[in-house]
């Protein structure tokens, strides 16, 4: 008999098609920071380039990586200010243009109606941004207060692939790893859940056709036990996990 009673869902490009919009705004800000810090970029960052390099990480995590790569420093106050500015830029874009991932709203409605599972969001992004996203597309009713952010919900902000946010979510929900299944679209997110002991359904739907095959392997290598490329496949994937087939 399956013990699974909780579904922990990533937000960006898993529930909502937000990554492209978010990284567009993010690129402008990172190029501004590079200029201010006199970082010699071969060419300015683009949203598309940032997605390839940093999908699944939040802005704080990206800035940590970029400081290490380019050898510049930033005070905590500076970083906090840029994090707030990035949130504002991205939220403004999301409130204008955000839509749900194809097919997910039907699945959420069915899961909620069944009453079989606790539904929660587990994201790297700032809580304000995640809440704005699920509000905009009408998904907030499925999660209530159970929205967890690695950037905002922890005593010390972090980002996936650190498993801290999944461990925190399970603690708050009173759940164990073998009661949960996660859905993730990125390497860092998949690693985060897997490191917390949770089985992951990988989702590659939002990737362009040329990248999709590569991402299937990336997510499998990161620990995803099964892959779907559309939410219409979710029920079958979950059934296989519940049956212990994967």
Automatic annotation (TrEMBL):
CDD domains tied to this protein: HAD_BPGM-like
SUPFAM superfamilies: HAD-like
GO MF term list: phosphatase activity
Matching Pfam families: Hydrolase
Top-level taxon of origin: Eukaryota
Protein name per its UniProtKB record: HAD-like protein
Species, as recorded: Parathielavia hyrcaniae
